[in-house]
Please model this.
Amino acid sequence: MNSFAFLKFKTLGTSRIGDIKMASRGKTETSKLKQNLEEQLDRLMQQLQDLEECREELDADEYEETKKETLEQLSEFNDSLKKIMSGNMTLVDELSGMQLAIQAAISQAFKTPEVIRLFAKKQPGQLRTRLAEMDRDLMVGKLERDLYTQQKVEILTALRKLGEKLTADDEAFLSANAGAILSQFEKVSTDLGSGDKVLALASFEVEKTKK
Model:
């Protein structure tokens, strides 16, 4: 099975998030639901990561088609998540970070699967650890400057969205390096009810790449 066929198999084999139903509002059920959602998101993030790792082996059409399918699954995931959270403030508190992370991935404001995963799970400590590792890798030449800048901007944005305080230097770095898509994501994601705006932004970006 070639790389593209493998990725297609993974995409088609992923279970639909809509199949997950909540039988009760109790803490145990909420915990199980959150775990199921995190596992689903992990699979989708792994698809994106596998796709990027196999990119050199795919032609442009194969890459774009597979990425589009994964982003469509993320959109379905986001729609189901909004329905699950509707009217339940406990779930809103538990899953708001996941929803923002999914929106960041759909709009392609965030492009690093591991950062999206840590954002979704509300793991500011691990995000800061990754940033420290990136600083070291940059210093010893293991990480290119452009990739470092992209991932640092994503991490700092995630930390800010999770309510973490940034240093003045980090704020300055973010202001200087955040691109147009990320800045727009910042604006439309301020309100958790703005998922439709984020999806509209994602559609705009997809159409723009076709021109």
